[in-house]
């Protein structure tokens, strides 16, 4: 059964602040991870070429 007792406004405010801080922290971590990925993503194409050449010329099948 749903709780229908009125909640204290301070508790609602504290809960809202906690959720907003958590949301901002998650967005900040994702932004940092995205920037870290972009800083090394320039290495993807040279690595693809190197691995392609290794697999092409060292494959003895």
Helix content: over 70%
User: What structural class do the secondary elements suggest?
Assistant: mainly alpha
Order of helices and strands: HH
> How large is the share of residues in beta strands?
under 5%
How many domains? The number is: 1
Radius of gyration: 25 Å
Give start-end ranges of low-pLDDT stretches: none
> What's the main sheet like?
none
| Average pLDDT taken over every residue | 89
General form: rod-shaped
Number of strand elements: 0
Give the count of helical stretches. 2
> Could you tell me how far the N terminus lies from the C terminus, measured between alpha carbons in angstroms?
67 Å
Briefly, what is this?
The chain has about 60 residues and is mostly helical. It is about 75% helix and about 0% strand.
Write structural notes for this entry.
With 61 residues, this protein is mainly α. It has one domain. Helices cover 77% and strands 0% of the residues. It is built from two helices and no strands. The protein is rod-shaped and about 75 Å long. The termini are far apart.
Features:
mainly alpha, 61 residues
Give the secondary structure arrangement, pairings included.
Blueprint: H1 9-40, H2 44-58
């Amino acid at each position: 059964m749903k709780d229908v007792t009125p909640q204290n406004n301070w508790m609602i405010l504290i809960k809202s602040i906690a959720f907003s801080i958590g949301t901002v922290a998650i967005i900040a971590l994702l932004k940092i991870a995205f920037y870290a990925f972009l800083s090394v993503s320039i290495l993807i194409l040279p690595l693809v070429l190197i691995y392609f050449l290794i697999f092409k010329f060292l494959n003895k099948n």
